Each structure stands twice: as structure tokens, then as C-alpha cells.
Amino acid sequence: MEREIRITNDGSKTLFINELNENYHSHHGALQEAEHVFIKNGLNLINDYEINILELGFGTGLNVLVTINEYLKTDKNHTINYFTLEKYPINESEIENLAYFDHFDNPELKNIYQKIHQTDWETSVEIVKGFSLKKIQCDFFDLKNIDLPKINLVYYDCFGARVQPDLWEKPLFEMVSDKMSVNGLLTTYSSKGSVRRVLKELNFQVEKKQGPPGKREMINAIKL
């Protein structure tokens, strides 16, 4: 699929897929969306010593970077194992031009960003002490065949239902739920009524939260 780089309203960049007329991130701000949905309403709500994160999908690597940035701010008395799925990895030119590290104060983030993208797929790599990353190149519906530890935090960051409705229906959510621990948290930018209903059917406690800039609401869901 043909992609082009666009600048979002907070100055950070995203990729735009012409064929789908779809951005990888909100045009209101790629970075602020990631931090609001997946850090403020995701990572910062988990208190477990070992945090196993599952992300659908890896995309530009921005969610991994904001997660590491937040981890580095802590006393690091916990560990994070981050598993991320992606069917269509972006290319080296796109990685270089997105340059998300420019938006952080921590100078370490440039090398970390490069390491995130340079690590081999299908291999668990310690990016910084206490934080390991495993990138898995596959279709999301292959999730049921992937061996994972019990996941206590899910970043559900698929393309929108307008362009990929099957990613927001019960079969995929059921696969995700099967990989999660009891009391695990699923967080997503979506607030669709159909998504809330599916999650409730799968025995999640669903809460609507204030959305990131440009979006009124988002969803947090706790597996019961």
C-alpha cells in the first residue's frame, strides 16, 4: 500500500495510506493521542510488578517509544515485556523521516527509537534494562496461534472500523481476551457502541473515558 508522511496538529508526524484514505494516527496529534490513550489511560493504571503488554499493531513504533519513555521516568522496580503484532512493517526511509525522538527531552530516545526498529522480528530483545520487546510479523487473526504469557495490558490500536471493520468485531476481541489475565486492561481510542457491546459480551467491564484531543470519548475495558 502506498503511504505518505503527514504532519499532525501537535507537530509529530504520521503515515497516510492513500488507498484507504486513512492515517496511522489522529491528525489532531499523533504523539498526544498515543500518550493519552496508551499511557495516561493504559500503562499508568497498571501496578503489577511484571507488565505484559500486547499491541495491535506496531505500525510506526510510536506506542513502543512512548511506553519506554514513561518507563524511564519511573524507579524501574518493575519489568515490561512488550509484544507487538504487525503485518506490514514500514520501511527505513519512513522510519528515518518520522523521527519521533525529536519530540522528547530525553536524548537517549534517539538511540532507543533506532533500536526499536532495527531489532529482528520474532526475537525478544531487551531495549533498555527491564524492558524487552518482541515484534511479531503476522496477521492479527494469527494471534490465536501465538504463544504469549498472560497479558495484563492491551493496546488495541488497529485501523478504524471504517476501513477494517473485521478488526472491531467479536472474533478478534475474543482472541485477545483469551490471551489476557483476569483484571487485565484493554485500552483503545475507539468508543463505538458495537465495540462496547462486544466487550461486555466477552465479560469485560467497560468504561467510557475522555478521548484525546479531537475525540470526545475512548474505551477502557477490564477483563472480569
Automatic annotation (TrEMBL):
The record's listing under InterPro entries reads: MnmC-like_methylTransf (IPR008471), SAM-dependent_MTases_sf (IPR029063), tRNA_MNMC2 (IPR047785)
**Which Pfam families does the UniProt entry name for this protein?**
Methyltransf_30
Annotated signal peptide: none
Domain MnmC-like methyltransferase: from-to ranges: 135-223
Q: Please name the NCBIfam families in this protein's record.
A: tRNA_MNMC2 (NF033855)
List the PANTHER family: MNMC-LIKE METHYLTRANSFERASE DOMAIN-CONTAINING PROTEIN, SLL0983 PROTEIN
Q: What is this protein called?
A: tRNA (5-methylaminomethyl-2-thiouridine)(34)-methyltransferase MnmD
Q: Specify the species.
A: Chryseobacterium edaphi
Q: Which gene encodes it?
A: mnmD
